[in-house]
Amino acid sequence: MKPKIAVFDFASCEGCELQIANLEEDILELIEHVDIVSFREVMKEHSDDYDIAFVEGSINRPADAERLRKIRSNAKVLIALGDCATTGCVNKLRNEWPDSEALTEVYPGAKKQIKGNELFDLFPAKAVNEVVEVDFYIRGCPVRKEQVLYYIKRLTDMPPSKNKDLDFGIILRDMEIDNRSVIKYNPRKCILCRRCVHICQDVMGVDALGVVEKGSEAIISTPQNIGFDANGCIRCGQCISTCPVGALGNRSPVETLAMEVKKKKLSIALDSVALSTFVQKHSTLHRMEPELAEKYVIAGLRHIGFQKVFQYDYYLSLSAQMDEQSEMPTLASWCRSAQNYFTERELNTLEVKPENSPWSLLLDEVHKNICLVSPCSAMKEVEEFNYVITGANLMELFRQLECDLDFMDPEGAAYDGQTVGRGFRHPGVPAPGRNGFGIRRDLPEKLAQAKIAKGAVHVYPCLAGCTNGGGTPPTIDENVIQERITWLEELRGV
C-alpha cells in the first residue's frame, strides 16, 4: 500500500507548497510512490488519514498550535517544509515588538474588531519544532521542488529514521542600523536574499550596493563599507520596493515634525502620487470618490497645524512646460533620481537644468518653512525643505497627532495658491506611448538612437514610475500599482 501524504500551511506565503505544485510532469512520478489525500492549495478533498505530513509556515496563535498538535498525532512522519517552518524565518521578526503593537500597525483603527477575536490572539512566532517534534527539515525560501521529490522517494524506499536532519536556530546579529544614507539599512532584519543587489546591479545598472563580509557577518553594503550615498546611489528607492522583510527603508522625520508642526508656521505641499498611496491604505478614504478623499486630507492637514496646503502637481506641470521649451535635449527635471544619475556620472548626453525642477519653483515661491509629501526617496535629500515625508510617514503623522480623518469637515477644503485642473497627468505616472526611458545599462545607446534634436526627455529610474516609488509605501505588486494609477486618473479626469 502506498503511503498517504498530506500538505498543510500556517503563516507563510505558500511559496513552498507552490513548488510542489510546480513539479509538473514529475507529479506523474510522484503519484507512483504516494497517494496525496490533503493539499488545500491544489485540491478540494481532505482526509485526516495520512502517514506523512508536510507542514509549511510558522506558528503564531494558540489555535495554530492546537491544530499542529492534531496533525502531529495523525502523522507517522512530520516534515517541516521551508524556512518559515524550520526556523520561523521572516515571521519571527515580529517578535521584536509587543503583539499589540504589531496588530495596531497592520490593522489600524480596528481595535473593536480585534478585541476578543481568536483570529487575532497572538503569541510570539515559533518554528514548527518549538511546538511539536519534527522528523525532517527541508530548508529554503522557497524550497527546491527537487528536494521535495527526493524526500518523498527517500521516505517510501527506506524506513524513516528520525532527526537525521537537525534543525538550527537563528542567530540574531547585534548590528547597528546604517543611517548614513537617505536609504537606511537594518542588518538585523536582512535575510540576505539579494533582491536589492539584483535590482541595483542587474536591472538599474547603478551598482551602488552588494554583499560584503562573510558568514554571519555578511551584510548589504558597499565596497569598503562607505555607505550607499557615497557609492553612486541615486536614491531611487527601488531596493526598498523589492525588499521582502523591510530591512531597507527611508529615514522618517515624523517624530520631530509632530512636535514642531503646531509651534512653527509650516506649509505643506502634497504630491498626488503620495496622496494616492496614503488613501489606498486608509480604511475609509479608499472607498470615497478621489476628489472627496483629497478634500478630507487637506482638511486634516489644516487641522493638525499646517498654515497653507499647496498642490505640488501644479509645480510639476510648470516644470514640464519649461522643459518642453528647451532648445537643447534636456533632462525632464521632475525626477530627482534621474538628475542624480546624470549629474553624478557626468553624462553629457542630456543637459540637466536644476532650476527647472518643480521643487525649485515651489521653494522660490514659498521661500521657507515648507514640508513636502512625496513618493520619492531622493527628495529627502533636498535640504531646502524643512521636512520631506512619504505617504506612509503621513499616516504615521496623523496617528501621532491623534487626527482621525473620518471626523474632518471636507466642506470648502481646497489648496492654497494655483492648481492644475482636470486632464493633468502626473509625469511620474506611466502612460501609453510616452517618449521616456528607464535607467538601464543601455540607456546611453537608447538616447543616441533616439536622435533627439531638442525638447525634454523623460528618464525615470523607478520600475513603474513614481507609482512604484521608494517611499510611498513602495511596492512591486502590479495590482497595487494599477490601483494607484486608476485612482490618479479618476482624480484628474484623465
How would you characterize this protein structure?
- The mean pLDDT is 84.
- A 5-stranded parallel beta sheet has the order 2-1-3-4-5. Strands 11-10-13-14 form a 4-stranded parallel beta sheet. Strands 12-16-15 form a 3-stranded parallel beta sheet, with helices on both faces.
- The termini are far apart.
- It has helices at residues 15-21, 26-33, 62-74, 83-86, 99-106, 111-114, 145-157, 195-203, 238-242, 254-260, 272-281, 290-303, 312-324, 336-344, 358-366, 391-400, 443-450, 478-492, and strands at 4-9, 35-39, 52-56, 77-81, 136-138, 183-185, 210-212, 219-221, 248-250, 267-270, 308-311, 329-331, 370-373, 387-389, 436-438, 455-460, 463-466.
- It has 18 helices and 17 strands.
- It is globular, with a radius of gyration of 26 Å.
- With 494 residues, it is an alpha/beta fold.
- Helix 11 (272-281) packs across helix 16 and helix 13 packs across helix 15 (358-366).
- Strand 7 (210-212) and strand 8 form a beta hairpin.
- It has 3 domains: 4-157, 3-Layer(aba) Sandwich (Rossmann fold), CATH 3.40.50; 183-250, Alpha-Beta Plaits (2-Layer Sandwich), CATH 3.30.70; 254-492, no CATH class.
Descriptors for this entry?
18 helices, 494 residues, four-stranded parallel beta sheet, Rossmann fold, alpha/beta, Alpha-Beta Plaits
- The total of beta strands comes to 17
Strand order of the largest sheet: 2-1-3-4-5
Give start-end ranges of low-pLDDT stretches: none
Head-to-tail CA distance between termini: 65 Å
Q: What's the overall geometry?
A: globular
State Rg: 26 Å
Q: Taking all residues together, what is the mean pLDDT?
A: 84
What is the number of independent domains?
3
Helix content: 25-40%
Category from helices, strands and their pairing: alpha/beta
**In percent, how much strand structure appears in the residues?**
5-15%
For the biggest sheet, the summary is: 5 strands, parallel
Note the total helix count. Answer: 18
